[in-house]
């Protein structure tokens, strides 16, 4: 079983191109949408990094209890969450892969994240945003239009509030990300990267992979959503990783 964890501001739909490229049949994969990213957050769900990590771990454990060890894949926020979940539950994974984000303790937030983390400024940004603006911004940032067509309308009040809470719970990413030792699962890991990512520069991937001796695959001429831009190329690398 393959488990795909998306990031911000996406839903599980963003995995559709690579799932198709992999030729996965329904029942061979799970691509759930995080709480608050497709409707209201459940009662009592805090929408912090800890809450989302707990959600990923529970989703992973449930899948592993049913299907056996899982091939876990995460992108953007889903990447560090997936990596830490794999580190925390090594028996639940067969392999783990992260795409265009890593739990690297030297990481510093990009400017948009800092806007979201700033009280009032973040709320104003979200208030002024609408589906048309978000659609344009996503495409400008490199998201393929067919994916943006689906995702932009879903950036509603629920997702906006969830995003602000998540980012404000992680103002010091280095302190959190530096708390984990990935040597226990390094031999089952893979990092994949679109080299032109405007949010997370390639240098962070290089440092993370060098520190833990994890393979790094760099896809040329694509950006943060490279896995959607050239899904066939990323699918080939994923399939090879799973077959090792």
Task: Please specify the SSE layout and strand pairing.
Elements: E1 2-5, H1 16-22, E2 29-30, H2 49-67, E3 70-75, H3 78-88, E4 93-99, H4 111-117, H5 121-128, H6 131-140, H7 145-151, H8 157-168, H9 173-177, E5 189-194, H10 202-212, E6 216-219, H11 226-229, H12 231-243
Parallel strand pairs: 1-2, 1-3, 3-4, 4-5, 5-6
Helix pairs in contact: 1-12, 2-3, 4-5, 4-8, 6-7
What does this structure look like?
The protein is of the alpha/beta class. The protein has a single domain, classed as Alpha/Beta hydrolase fold, catalytic domain (Rossmann fold), CATH 3.40.50. The protein is built from twelve helices and six strands. The chain has helices at residues 16-22, 49-67, 78-88, 111-117, 121-128, 131-140, 145-151, 157-168, 173-177, 202-212, 226-229, 231-243, and strands spanning 2-5, 29-30, 70-75, 93-99, 189-194, 216-219. Strands 2-1-3-4-5-6 form a six-stranded parallel beta sheet, with helices on both faces. Strand 5, helix 10 (202-212) and strand 6 (216-219) form a beta-alpha-beta unit. Helix 2 (49-67) packs across helix 3 (78-88) and helix 4 (111-117) crosses helix 8. The radius of gyration is 17 Å and the shape is globular. The protein starts with a strand and ends with a helix. The mean pLDDT is 95.
């Amino acid at each position: 079983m393959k488990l795909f964890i998306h990031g911000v501001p996406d839903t599980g739909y963003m995995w559709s191109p690579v799932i198709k490229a992999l030729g996965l049949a329904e029942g061979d994969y799970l691509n759930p949408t995080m709480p608050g990213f497709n409707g209201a957050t459940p009662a009592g769900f805090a929408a912090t990094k800890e809450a989302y990590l707990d959600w990923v771990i529970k989703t992973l454990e449930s899948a592993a209890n049913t299907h056996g060890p899982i091939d876990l894949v995460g992108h953007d926020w889903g990447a560090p969450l997936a990596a830490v979940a794999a580190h925390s539950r090594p028996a639940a994974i067969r392999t783990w892969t992260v795409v265009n984000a890593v739990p690297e303790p030297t990481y510093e937030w990009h400017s948009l994240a800092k806007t979201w983390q700033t009280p009032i400024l973040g709320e104003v940004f979200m208030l002024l945003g609408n589906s048309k603006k978000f659609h344009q911004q996503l495409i400008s940032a490199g998201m393929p239009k067919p994916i943006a067509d689906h995702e932009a309308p879903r950036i509603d009040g629920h997702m906006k509030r969830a995003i602000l809470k998540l980012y404000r719970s992680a103002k010091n990413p280095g302190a959190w990300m530096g708390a984990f030792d990935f040597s226990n699962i390094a031999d089952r890991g893979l990092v994949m990267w679109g080299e032109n990512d405007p949010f997370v520069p390639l240098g962070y991937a290089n440092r993370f992979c060098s520190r833990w001796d994890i393979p790094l695959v760099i896809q040329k001429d694509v950006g943060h959503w490279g896995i959607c831009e050239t899904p066939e190329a990323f699918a080939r690398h994923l399939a090879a990783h799973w077959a090792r």
